[in-house]
Specification:
The chain is α/β, with parallel strands linked by helices and 274 residues long. The chain has 2 domains: 119 residues, Periplasmic binding protein-like II (D-Maltodextrin-Binding Protein, domain 2, 3-Layer(aba) Sandwich), CATH 3.40.190; 106 residues, Periplasmic binding protein-like II (D-Maltodextrin-Binding Protein, domain 2). Helix content is 43%, strand content 20%. It has a 6-stranded mixed β-sheet with strand order 2-1-3-10-4-11. Helix 3 runs antiparallel to helix 12 and helix 4 packs parallel to helix 5. The longest helix has 25 residues. It is globular and about 55 Å long. The chain starts with a helix and ends in a 6-residue tail after the last strand.
C-alpha cells in the first residue's frame, strides 16, 4: 500500500466516528422540544355553522399563543353524542342550548366553564339564480305554495338545531303542516345549504351566517326573531379538557374574537374581555 493510501485509510478511520456522532446529534430532537410542545394542541367540537368564522378565530389564536386548534365540525346533536361515547375533545360549541344541556346531564362538559357566546338568525334561501326574492315571512306564510313542486332543505327537525328552529318557526306561523311533506332533512345545516347551492332544493332554511359564506345561494326572507326560540351558541370546556383550553375559551370571549364573529354575521352575546 502506498503512503498516500495509508493516509486516506487512517483519515477515514479517525473521522468516521466523528461524523456519526454529529449526525446523531442533528437527528436527535432537542431535550427542550418535547416539553415545549407538550399539550400545545387542543381539539374543539363545533357546530357546522361555525366553520368559517371559527377557522379564522382559531388561526388568530394559534398565532398569538402557539397552541394549535384542531376543529371537528358537525351537527351539534352528532357532536354531543360523540362526546357521550368518549370521543376526545377539549371544548364544545353547540348551536343550541338543548344539546349543551344534554352534555351537561351526561357530565361530558365542565359546567362552570359554560357561557352563552353567540347568537344567530334563521333565513329562507334559494339558489342564486332563482326568480324568488323579497319574501315576507309572517303569520300564515305559505311556504308550501312558494316551493311548488320543489324540495325545501333544512337540518333534521328532530335533532339538528337549525331544523328544530325552522320547525318551531313554521309551527308558530301556521305553515308547518302543509310544508312538512316537501322537506328534505339534512344531517347538518351545511348539508342543507349545499342542497340549495347545487339546485337540488328550491328553498332552504339555514342560519344567516351560512347564507353569507355560500355564493351559490341568496337570502330571500328572514324569519321573525319571535317566531322561534332564541338562537344561542353556548361554549364549554369538556371534562377531559387540557389546561390550554382555558386560554382558548378566554380568547373566544375577547374583543378580537368578537370582531371576527361579527364579520361573519354572528351576534356577540357577552361583554368582550380585553
Amino acid at each position: 500500500m502506498t503512503l498516500m493510501s495509508r493516509c486516506l485509510v487512517i483519515t477515514a478511520l479517525v473521522c468516521a466516528p466523528l461524523f456519526a456522532m454529529a449526525h446523531a446529534q442533528d437527528a436527535r430532537p432537542s431535550a427542550a422540544a418535547p416539553a415545549a410542545l407538550q399539550g400545545k394542541t387542543i381539539t374543539v367540537f363545533a357546530a357546522a355553522s361555525m366553520k368559517n368564522a371559527l377557522d379564522e378565530a382559531n388561526t388568530v389564536f394559534t398565532a398569538k399563543t402557539g397552541v394549535k386548534v384542531t376543529a371537528s365540525y358537525a351537527a351539534s346533536s352528532a357532536l354531543a353524542k360523540q362526546l357521550e361515547q368518549g370521543a376526545p375533545a377539549d371544548a364544545f360549541i353547540s348551536a343550541d342550548i338543548d344539546w349543551m344541556d344534554y352534555s351537561a346531564r351526561k357530565k361530558t362538559i365542565n359546567e362552570p366553564s359554560r357561557v352563552n357566546l353567540l347568537g344567530n338568525k334563521i333565513v329562507l334561501i334559494a339558489p342564486k339564480d332563482s326568480k324568488l326574492a323579497d319574501v315576507k315571512i309572517g303569520q300564515g306564510f305559505d311556504l308550501a305554495k312558494l316551493a311548488g313542486d320543489g324540495r325545501i332543505a333544512t337540518g333534521d327537525v328532530k335533532a339538528v338545531p337549525v331544523g328544530k328552529y325552522a320547525r318551531a318557526a313554521l309551527e308558530k306561523l301556521g305553515s308547518w303542516q302543509a310544508a312538512e311533506p316537501k322537506f328534505a332533512m339534512a344531517e347538518s345545516v351545511r348539508a342543507a345549504l349545499a342542497l340549495v347551492s347545487r339546485g337540488e332544493a328550491v328553498l332552504g332554511i339555514v342560519y344567516k351566517t351560512d347564507a353569507k359564506v355560500d355564493p351559490g345561494v341568496k337570502i330571500i326572507g328572514v324569519f321573525p326573531a319571535d317566531s322561534h326560540p332564541a338562537i344561542i351558541y353556548p361554549v364549554a370546556a369538556t371534562t377531559a379538557a387540557k389546561p390550554d383550553t382555558a386560554g382558548y375559551l378566554a380568547f373566544l370571549r375577547s374583543a378580537a374574537a368578537k370582531a371576527i364573529f361579527e364579520t361573519y354575521g354572528f351576534t356577540f352575546l357577552i361583554k368582550p374581555t380585553a
